[in-house]
Amino acid sequence: LSGLDPAQPYFQGTPTEVRLDKSDAVFVDIIHTDSAPTIPNLGFGMSPAIGHIDFYPNGGKEMPGCGKNPVSQIVDLDGIWEGTRDFVACNHLRSYKYYLDSIIYPDGFLGYPCASYDLFQSGNCFPCPEEGCPNMGHYADKFKDKVKRDFVKLYLNTGEARDFPLWRYKISVTLSGKSKVKGYVNVALYGSGGNTKQYQITKGTLKPDNTYTAYIDAEVNVGQVTKVKFLWNNNWINPTFPKLGAATITVEAGQNR
C-alpha cells in the first residue's frame, strides 16, 4: 500500500484506526512531500513516519520547482488546469508525479536511511548500506523483506521538473600544482548510462595537494564511469598564468558503493 502524501488536517496525531498506518497492509510505503505545519505554512501532508518505510524527498516539506512565480505556474506546460492545481497545492501533488516517474525509472529515487535531511545533505548517510536502498514509489515493495526496524525514514533529492529522479555521487578531487589560487573546480561524469552536466566541487581558495569533496545529485544514472572531465577557472585575470591539475579524482556511486 503506497501513501501519496497522506493528509495532515484532521488525521495527524489521531488513532491508527482513523488514519493510514502500517497495520493496514503487509507492506506500507509513504511519500511525504508537503509535511510543513498547516498553520502557517499550509502544509497538507502528514509529517510523522507511519509506514514500514517513509520517504522524505527534498526533506519532505518544500519541493523544488514549487516556488516559481504564480503566473508561470498557472500558465504551465501541462496546461492551465494542471498549472492552477499546482499553484494551490504544488508540494502536495508532487507525490503522485514522483510516483508516475518511478514507474518509468526502476533504478531511480533511491531513499537513503538517515536521521535527518540535514545529515543526508551533508553526506553523513552516504553510500547506501550493504542491503541497499529502497526505491521510492512503484518499486518500493522490492525492499519489503529487508526492513528490520519499526520506522525507517529515507531521504533523497529530486529535480525541479520532469524527469524527477536524480542519482547521488560522492566526488573527491585532489589538486596538483605549484601555488594556491582563488577560483572554482567543476567536474562532469561520463559513463555507460550517459553523461552529466558540470557540477561545482569547490570554490574559493584552491590549494595544491588538498582534497575537495562534494556530493552531487546527477540528472542521469552514469552506470560504469568511463571518463571524468575536470575544469578549473580562477575568478579574475592572473598575470602569472597559474597552472592547476587534478592528481586524482575519486567517484563513488551511492547505490552500489
Automatic annotation (TrEMBL):
Molecular functions (GO terms): galactolipase activity; lipoprotein lipase activity
Family: Belongs to the AB hydrolase superfamily. Lipase family.
Annotated membrane topology: Peripheral membrane protein
Name recorded for this polypeptide: Pancreatic lipase-related protein 2
Protein's pathway: Glycerolipid metabolism; triacylglycerol degradation; Glycolipid metabolism
PLAT domain mapped to chain residues: 167-257
GO cellular-component term (any): neuron projection
Pfam families per UniProt: Lipase, PLAT
Taxonomy, superkingdom: Eukaryota
Gene (name only): Pnlip
Catalytic reaction(s) noted: a 1,2-diacyl-sn-glycero-3-phosphocholine + H2O = a monoacyl-sn-glycero-3-phosphocholine + a fatty acid + H(+); 1-(9Z-octadecenoyl)-glycerol + H2O = glycerol + (9Z)-octadecenoate + H(+); a 1,2-diacyl-3-O-[alpha-D-galactosyl-(1->6)-beta-D-galactosyl]-sn-glycerol + H2O = acyl-3-O-[alpha-D-galactosyl-(1->6)-beta-D-galactosyl]-sn-glycerol + a fatty acid + H(+); di-(9Z)-octadecenoylglycerol + H2O = (9Z-octadecenoyl)-glycerol + (9Z)-octadecenoate + H(+)
